[in-house]
Every structure is written in structure tokens, then in C-alpha cells.
Amino acid sequence: MILSKVLDVIIVGAGASGLACAYFLKNSNAIILDKYEGARKLAITGNNRCNITNTLPFEDFLPGYGKNGQFLRDTFGKFFREELLFWLKRLGVETREENGKIFLKNVSSKEFSRILKNKVETRIKVKKFEPVISAKREGNLFLVETEKNLYKTINLVLATGGKSYPHTGSDGSGYSLAKQLGHTIVDLEPIEVPFCSKEKVDHLKGITLKNTTVTLKLERKNIAEKGDLLFTHFGLSGPVILKLSNNSFREAEISVKLLDNPKRTVEKLHFYKGKTKNYLSRFLPKKLADLSPHKELQATNLNKKQLKDVENFLSDFRIKVKKCGFKRAFVTKGGVSIKEIDPRTFESKITKNLFFCGEIADIQGSIGGFNLQYAFSSGYTVASTINNRIS
Ligand SMILES: Cc1cc2nc3c(=O)[nH]c(=O)nc-3n(C[C@H](O)[C@H](O)[C@H](O)COP(=O)(O)OP(=O)(O)OC[C@H]3O[C@@H](n4cnc5c(N)ncnc54)[C@H](O)[C@@H]3O)c2cc1C
After folding, report:
1. CA of 157 to the centre of ligand 1 (A)
2. Where are the alpha helices (DSSP H) in 198-343?
3. Pocket residues for ligand 1 (CB within 6 Å)?
4. Which atom number of ligand 1 is nearest to the Cα of residue 358?
5. To test the ligand 1 pocket, which listed residue (11, 23, 31, 45) has its Cβ within 8 A of the most ligand atoms?
6. Ligand 1 centroid from CA 264, angstroms
7. Cα(273)–Cα(283) distance, integer angstroms
């Protein structure tokens, strides 16, 4: 085990927030350590188009992070969308807007992550394939242990991400490091995650229902959202499901409104000379129409109760679901308690010179560029705090 000279800064994690922090650091007596080659998650964001931020005004942006959004007021005061877009321009990265979301224009997510890594590597050593296994305080310094080395540093930045998509490197090990340094971890939960279903819905895979209302039936309340719904081989996905997955639950039932106006459809069904399923397949994908009650019966012969059954099927198609887990989740809810972090500096309130940026903290945004905006803004804030102290 090699003990290096004392460093000014160690950043653990070369993802979105860690690389932003490294980029803005003025001091070069610093290193970044990453479990893999770094920026794996950034390289796959937004279906390779990277939804970097969005056009919402400042005050409407904060609620995108739920009840913890106010924590970001200060950091967004320093580095928000304008600063982010200006920075990207300096990196040669152009953006474009699409329905209020801002995506990369001239490069893919993969190319962007390469550009950012290369830029950082011109000044700071990025130590790849060197996972950090422990971190502890020794006097005024931190001792950071990897499988290969033992490092000493004055400032330590934990930018290890959440627990979702663990093959990208963010496998939750950063939470153990934070715990070793005295921090509390708010319960972790996968969000922005598809729903898996034990019921046989795999034969519906590939079906998309546009702008559909889906209601999550929880013990104490029902939560309805509208958006596109996609049937997959494992269950359900699409924007409406990802939105619903931001609610806490283990197992639940969802109700899908298959048609906008089931009552009117059923009124007309009564006059159709043919099988129920054939009439319904005018409005629904055939495989769904085939699930209707009384599907083989002549529609004109349906009695009042049978018509009601069909109406219920169209307005309230039930599926038992559970969240698919961290492997398929875009984001992790929970993390280092923000009660223990100073919102002006992102420094630990428990251990001096220890900083957090990105998803490791208990801050999580909805889909739509909130998470990357936060990752870059928090990385900037940590770097400028350290710059002010060192200079
Ligand atoms: C498929 C997918 C698409 C997404 N698309 C978008 C999008 O379009 N827009 C958006 O806003 N958000 C998107 N997100 C969310 C966004 O990518 C993350 O919130 C963001 O990358 C978090 O940045 P981070 O720096 O906190 O963590 P990460 O980017 O996850 O980086 C953490 C880094 O830390 C390293 N690490 C972890 N533990 C250790 C350790 N013990 N030792 C050393 N290194 C370690 C990891 O290897 C990794 O490189 C997407 C997420 C996924 C999974």
C-alpha cells in the first residue's frame, strides 16, 4: 500500500457532478478516483441525447425536486441554466430546445462525456479503475483507501452518485463512505423506474397508449397521472409510469383508462353488428381488445350488465405492479441527509472539509433535465468553495 504526498483535494467519482467539480477547481494538486473509467452514466443519459436542463423559470424549477427543492436556491443562484449553457458553449457543445427540455445538439451524450473527461484530464489526474473502499478522518486530514493505494488529502469530495444502474459504477458504495464519516443516510428507494408485473402482460409488449390516464391505487390515496404508457416484456414503462414511480410503495395496483370516453364507446357498441372484440379493436390495439369481457359475443346481444362490464374494462383496466428495483431505476431517492449539509457550500456540517455533490445527497429531480442541472450546479458550488479557501 503506497501512501502518497498530501493532496489538496480528492474527488471520489468521475460522474457528472465529480467532473464538473474537477473542471472548476483552480487547484491542480488534486485527483479524481473512479471505480471504472468514469462518466458511464452521463454517457447514456437521455437516450444518448442528454437532457441537460429545461426552460422552466427559476421559481418553477425548484418544485421539480419535491420538498427538498428549496435547498438548491443558493446553489442555483450561483450556477443555473444560463451558466450551464455558457459553460457547454465553451466546451464546444451546442444545445437545442424541444418542448421545454434542453438537449445536446452537435454531440451525443457519449461524446459529451468524453469531451468533459478529456478536458479535466489535461489538469487533474483521473485515476480509473480504483474504487475507494474506506475513508476516515486523521487529524485535519482524510485517509482515503483504495484497493491499490492509501491517499491523504485536506479536502474530500464524495460524488459517488446514487444506487441506480449499478453497472455504471454508482452502486451505493458512496453511502458507506458517508456513513464512515458520521453521516445519516435517508432511506433509499428507486424512482424514475418502470413497473414490473407478475401478471401476464408480456404478450402486450410493444403496445403504446398515447396520453393515457393511469391511477396508482395506494392504501390511503389514489394518484393519477397522464402521459404515454408502454407495455414491455417485464411490465410497464413510459413517461406516465416513471412519473408515478416517484411515489413510495412496494406493491400496488394500477388502473389504466384505456379510452378517453368509455361510456360513449359502449353506447355505440350496442348498435354494432359483430363481435365485441372487433368493435373495440377499432379504438384499441387488437391484443388489448382481446382481453375485453364478452369479447366473443355479438355486441347487439349484450345485456345491460354485460355492457357495464365492457365499460369498466375500458375505464379501469387493473394490473398488479411493483417497482422494478435499482437496476432499472434512473434515479435514487434518499441519500445523505441534507440536514447535515450546508446548502451554501455543500460542505458537511459534521466533518469540516468534507463535501457532497450530485445524487449521493438526498436531492432528486423529476425527469426533464433536473438531475443533471443539479449535478453540475452542485459540482460547481463545491469547486468554488474549495477555490475560495485554498487561494
Ligand atoms: C439511463 C439514464 C438516463 C438518464 N438521463 C438523464 C437525463 O437525460 N437528464 C437528467 O437530468 N438526468 C438523467 N439521468 C440521471 C443522471 O444521469 C444522474 O442523476 C447523474 O448522472 C448523477 O450524477 P452524479 O455525479 O451524482 O453520479 P454519477 O453520474 O452516477 O457518477 C458517480 C461516479 O462515482 C463513481 N463511484 C461510485 N462509487 C465509487 C467508489 N466507491 N469509488 C470510486 N468511484 C465510485 C462511479 O463509478 C461513477 O462514475 C439518467 C440516469 C440514467 C440511469
Report:
1. 15
2. 239-244, 262-269, 276-280, 286-289, 304-315
3. 12-18, 33-36, 38, 40-42, 44-46, 50-51, 131-132, 159-161, 164-165, 168-170, 173-174, 330-331, 358-359, 369-372, 375
4. 26
5. 45
6. 47
7. 16
> What average pLDDT does range 198-203 have in this prediction?
83
The fraction of the chain above a pLDDT of 90, given in percent, is: 94
* Shortest-distance Cα residue to atom 5 of ligand 1: 45
For the cut 90, the answer to whether the pLDDT of residue 154 exceeds it is: yes
Please tell me the distance between residue 15's alpha carbon and the centre of ligand 1 in angstroms: 6
Distance 274 CA to ligand 1 centre (A): 54
Q: How far apart are CA 136 and CA 118, in angstroms?
A: 30
- Dihedral sign, Cα of residue 40, residue 185, residue 52, residue 50: positive
Whether the pLDDT of residue 343 is over 90: the answer is yes
Name the closest-CA residue to atom 44, ligand 1: 34
Q: Whose CA is nearest to atom 24 of ligand 1?
A: 161
Cα separation of 71 and 212, whole Å?
Answer: 33
Kindly list the structural domains of the chain, giving each domain's residue range(s) and its CATH number in brackets, ordered by start: 2-189+333-390 (3.50.50.60), 195-323 (no CATH)
pLDDT above 90: residue 104: yes
Burial of residue 55, with CB atoms counted within 10 A of its CB: 0-12 exposed, 13-18 middle, 19 or more buried: middle
Reported as a single tens digit per residue, the pLDDT across 163-189 is 999 999 999 999 999 999 999 999 999
Quick one: which of 300, 303, 304, 293 has its CA closest to 258? 293
And the C-alpha cell for 352? 469540516
Count of Cβ atoms closer than 10 Å to residue 129 Cβ: 13
Q: What is the mean pLDDT of residues 271-281?
A: 96
pLDDT of residue 56: 97
Q: CA-CA distance, 389 to 352, in Å (whole number)?
A: 12
Q: Which residues lie closer than 8 Å to 305 by C-beta, 6 or more apart? A: none
